[in-house]
Amino acid sequence: MANAINAYELTVNGHAISITNPHKPLWPEANVTKLDYLRYLLIVAPHLLSYAKNRLLTVIRYPHGIHDKHFYQKNIPEYAPSWIQTHTWENVRYVLCNDEATLLWMANQAALEWHVSFHLATDETPTELVFDLDPSTEDFAVVIEAALLVKELLDELKLPAFVKTSGASGLQVYVPIELRYTFEQTRQVGQFIASYLVSKHPAFLTIERMVKNRGDKLYIDYLQHWRGKTLPAPYSTRAKKGATVSAPLLWEEVPQSHPSAFTVHTLPQRLNEKGDLFAAVSRPTTRASLDPILDFLRRP
């Protein structure tokens, strides 16, 4: 927690962090300044970090707010303080998003999106199976319908499923799995489930990777789930006008949900009322076996 807060300096986890341009508008339409953003991160930090801890972090930085130039950052900046934890993976020295001080220091560098790997930095074992539902149009009703179809099939397969908004236009479905599968195996399962759904609903679902070939169909992305690749962490902000965030949902909320409802302004109260709806993914008490599906796929 922050022990001392003034306009220009925070002390977090025993580390003094200088805050530059604290009143800079990062999301001008949503009236979110850098200080507003830092306050939001301190509120959601326990829950965001619960999932993101020890994972490879990629941030997207917007030094002058969401409407100006931006860039992806994987390597830790050379000027970063020595207390930030890192891990080198495939010749990249990644930041590990492991504490509030790291969040706040990176946020002061205008890191506005937090994307983390599907595995821990020191272990390439996938911690869940993930489906990213990516619409080709602005019609969110299609996303809702697709998510409910994924949930229905996962229920039939006796696989637990948890859902969150991407913070942009889609929904993402997570299945906590036993920590003994390879990404090759999870891709087999993901392809099987996605292909089955497309075969049943070809009019509006696709697994076509090329955007230009999708038409108006919703893309069930199972390929993103791979070593070193990322999706936004739960509670990560997104560089959208409304200051939307990647928000975990209850399945009963999905039919009436829209990403625009979950923002820097609304998430703190939601967390206070509902708690961390992603806890079963971040800290699962049970993990699913993929053996029955893999056994089926191995049959001649």
Description:
The protein has helices at 34-52, 100-108, 140-156, 183-200, 267-274, 279-282, 291-298, and strands spanning 2-5, 9-12, 15-18, 25-27, 32-33, 55-61, 71-73, 86-89, 92-96, 111-120, 128-134, 162-165, 171-176, 205-206, 218-221, 230-232, 248-249. It is of the alpha+beta class and 300 residues long. The strands form 4 sheets. Strands 6, 7, 8, 9, 10 and 16 form a 6-stranded antiparallel beta sheet that branches. It is globular, with a radius of gyration of 19 Å. The longest helix is centred in the N-terminal third of the chain and has 19 residues, at 34-52.
Give a quick summary of the entry:
This protein has 300 residues and is of the alpha+beta class. The chain is built from seven helices and 17 strands. It has helices spanning 34-52, 100-108, 140-156, 183-200, 267-274, 279-282, 291-298, and strands spanning 2-5, 9-12, 15-18, 25-27, 32-33, 55-61, 71-73, 86-89, 92-96, 111-120, 128-134, 162-165, 171-176, 205-206, 218-221, 230-232, 248-249.
Question: What topology emerges from the helices and strands here?
Answer:
Blueprint: E1 2-5, E2 9-12, E3 15-18, E4 25-27, E5 32-33, H1 34-52, E6 55-61, E7 71-73, E8 86-89, E9 92-96, H2 100-108, E10 111-120, E11 128-134, H3 140-156, E12 162-165, E13 171-176, H4 183-200, E14 205-206, E15 218-221, E16 230-232, E17 248-249, H5 267-274, H6 279-282, H7 291-298
Parallel strand pairs: 14-15
Antiparallel strand pairs: 1-2, 2-3, 4-5, 6-7, 6-9, 6-10, 8-9, 10-16, 11-13, 11-15, 12-13, 12-17
Helix pairs in contact: 1-2
